[in-house]
Amino acid sequence: MAQAFGTDIEIVIMPRHIHMSLLSADGRETVTTIAPVPHAPISFNVNTRLSELSWEVADRRIDFCTAREKFNTIISTDRQSALWVLCAATVANASFCRLFGGDLIAMLTVAIATFAGYLIKQMMLERGADLRFTVVVCAFVSAVLGASDGLFHIGTTPGIALGTSVLYLVPGIPFLNSFSDMIYRRYLCALSRFFDAVVLTACLSTGLFAGMMLMHSSFAAL
């Protein structure tokens, strides 16, 4: 997008802020800004619309003023339904349970655990709760519900139900982004994103462990 408007850009992305420098084509003028990154749920709808906008700019189909208007519209309106995302995450996680060999009872248990945990995640993030604390709480709730399969002996794969009940909290995107940054030799960004993902994984593990201890579930069941 910057090249389409005749400028060069350097970006350093951190978990808490973005450092951006815009350089004129002749190299005589530089504008630098540092912007905070708010903690908010990831919206793939917004990401897709921003990607479409970037291609419109790169292909020179729209000018700067039009691009700015579209950008402001995209970031201020999200057509993605929270209920649809909740249901999609529930079905996806239940499908993962089946993929790992879970029976129908385990799939139903995982669906309930995912629905409850993801709903809590949406509510907490909308109210500005800390992401790390949110992950701990959601993992705990999902683990408690996921352990009900083994607690009541109603299924044949209780370990799979418990193990897959928290898969929706795995920070896959930060891990993938850190690996991508490493490939392109953006080592500072790669390390910051990797450590952020490691912290979230530790929070997930803490909530899972607490839920298992409360329900007296054995790690051998996994």
Structural summary, described in words:
There is one protein chain. This protein is mostly helical. Helix content is 61%, strand content 10%. It has helices at 44-58, 64-76, 82-99, 104-126, 131-146, 148-151, 158-164, 172-183, 187-214; strands at 7-13, 17-24, 30-36. Strands 1-2-3 form a three-stranded antiparallel beta sheet, with no helix packed on it. Strand 2 (17-24) and strand 3 form a beta hairpin. Helix 4 runs antiparallel to helix 5. The longest helix is centred in the C-terminal third of the chain and has 28 residues, at 187-214. The radius of gyration is 21 Å and the shape is elongated. The termini are far apart. 27% of the residues are buried. The mean pLDDT is 88.
Blueprint (SSEs and pairs):
Blueprint: E1 7-13, E2 17-24, E3 30-36, H1 44-58, H2 64-76, H3 82-99, H4 104-126, H5 131-146, H6 148-151, H7 158-164, H8 172-183, H9 187-214
Antiparallel strand pairs: 1-2, 2-3
Helix pairs in contact: 1-2, 3-4, 3-7, 4-5, 4-7, 5-7, 5-9, 8-9
Short key terms for the protein model shown above:
mainly alpha; 9 helices; 222 residues; elongated; single chain
Class per helix and strand makeup: mainly alpha
What is the topology, as strand order, of the major beta sheet?
1-2-3
Overall, the morphology is elongated
> What about the largest sheet?
3 strands, antiparallel
CA radius of gyration is 21 Å
Q: Percent range for helical residues?
A: 55-70%
Low-confidence stretches: none
Number of helices: 9
Proportion of beta-strand residues: 5-15%
Spell the H/E element sequence: EEEHHHHHHHHH
